[in-house]
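Quiz preparation item.
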């Protein structure tokens, strides 16, 4: 209908007012360039509704066969309120798994429903998208190939004490293997948590962590007591690059959900907080669909490792080395003769290392398959070999003897 777009309402008003003054319909329709059918329709709307009838009518259909029923809306809203950190896709997959045959709307429609009811908090968009998995990190193609471990940032409980949650996940299946609230992020309590997890799920091939304590150190080879214990169990420690948490982004994303659902607000004491962690682990593994798993739950994609936790550990063997020495209680290894020793690392206290002669008075020190450095017997000094704490640092180092020793 060719009304003037600049003021369609005024054109219609002029049209009906001239009709009221007695002008003929056919003449006005010809003048305004509309059909007689449109003119009579507009006249009827004016007589029925007055000036309001001259505005454009809504084109929204009176009935929509695709509209969500009240029952479906209540189910969706109930699922969101029960799991406030889940998005539309997860709520839909969760309801579909609980009630087979239930016809649910698209995730976009579910998201609009949540917005209308004030159940969505708008988040700031990231300023850039960080590339996940950058670098030669181990790729997990099956369960227990790569585990990820980290401490979620400490927070204060209701009684004023700080809680340090230690978390362990399987990278392939996303299963949350452990979430234990510790009083301190120290080696002793961390060893106990890992031993408990190893006994329950078996041993992985690789454990990926950051470069902080107790997983790593700034000492010899970046070794810590925890990583030394993993190596004794046949597990390769893998460390991400410093200041690059996105290389363990999958684990960090789990930490965000953990924080939202268990620490806001925190519980009154450690026992109550651990109960929250345990409930979170059950829901996260057994009920919460994961988009990276085609909306399956992590528990359906995981099975324990075929490598059980050994009750006893045999000492490392060094068949190609001349000497095998135990590291002393202060991290030193004794040489030949009274009072002759050099310092290695406190992470190796009680461990057996191999010494291979490279030349007169020159010895290569090795722990398992990791070459640590060279001892100069005459100078009673130890020169560490470079082991950068980046993700591409090899477990097995290839050492060429110095030119003077060849």
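Solution:
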């Amino acid at each position: 209908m060719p009304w003037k777009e600049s003021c369609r309402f005024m054109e219609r008003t002029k049209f009906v007012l001239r009709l009221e003054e007695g002008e003929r319909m056919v003449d006005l329709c010809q003048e305004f360039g509309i059909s007689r059918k449109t003119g009579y329709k507009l006249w009827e709307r004016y007589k029925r509704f007055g000036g309001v009838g001259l505005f454009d009518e809504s084109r929204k259909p009176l009935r929509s066969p695709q509209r969500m029923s009240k029952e479906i809306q209540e189910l969706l809203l109930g699922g969101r309120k029960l799991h406030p950190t889940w998005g539309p896709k997860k709520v839909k997959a969760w309801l579909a798994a609980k009630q087979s045959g239930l016809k649910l709307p698209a995730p976009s429609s579910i998201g609009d429903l949540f917005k209308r009811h004030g159940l969505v908090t708008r988040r700031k968009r990231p300023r850039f998208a960080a590339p996940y998995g950058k670098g030669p990190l181990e790729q997990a193609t099956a369960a227990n190939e790569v585990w990820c471990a980290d401490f979620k940032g400490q927070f204060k409980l209701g009684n004023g004490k700080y809680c340090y949650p230690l978390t362990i996940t399987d990278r392939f299946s996303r299963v949350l293997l452990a979430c234990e609230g510790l009083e301190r992020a120290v080696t002793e309590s961390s060893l106990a948590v890992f031993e408990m997890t190893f006994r329950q799920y078996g041993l992985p091939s690789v454990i990926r962590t950051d470069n902080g304590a107790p997983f790593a150190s700034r000492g010899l080879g970046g070794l810590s007591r925890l990583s030394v214990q993993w190596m004794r169990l046949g597990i390769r420690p893998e460390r991400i690059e410093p200041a690059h948490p996105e290389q363990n982004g999958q684990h960090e994303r789990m930490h965000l959900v953990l924080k939202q659902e268990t620490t806001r607000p925190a519980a009154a004491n450690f026992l109550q907080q651990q109960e929250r962690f345990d409930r979170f682990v059950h829901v996260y593994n057994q009920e919460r669909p994961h988009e990276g798993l085609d909306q399956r739950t992590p528990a359906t994609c995981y099975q324990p490792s075929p490598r059980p936790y050994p009750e006893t550990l045999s000492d490392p063997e060094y068949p190609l080395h001349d000497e095998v020495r135990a590291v002393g209680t202060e991290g030193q290894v004794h040489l030949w003769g009274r009072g002759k020793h050099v310092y290695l690392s406190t992470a190796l206290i009680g461990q057996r290392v191999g010494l291979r002669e490279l030349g007169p008075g020159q010895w290569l020190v090795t722990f398992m398959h990791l070459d640590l450095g060279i001892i100069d017997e005459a100078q009673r000094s130890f020169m560490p070999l470079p082991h950068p704490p980046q993700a591409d640092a090899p477990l097995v180092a290839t050492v060429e003897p110095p030119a003077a020793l060849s």
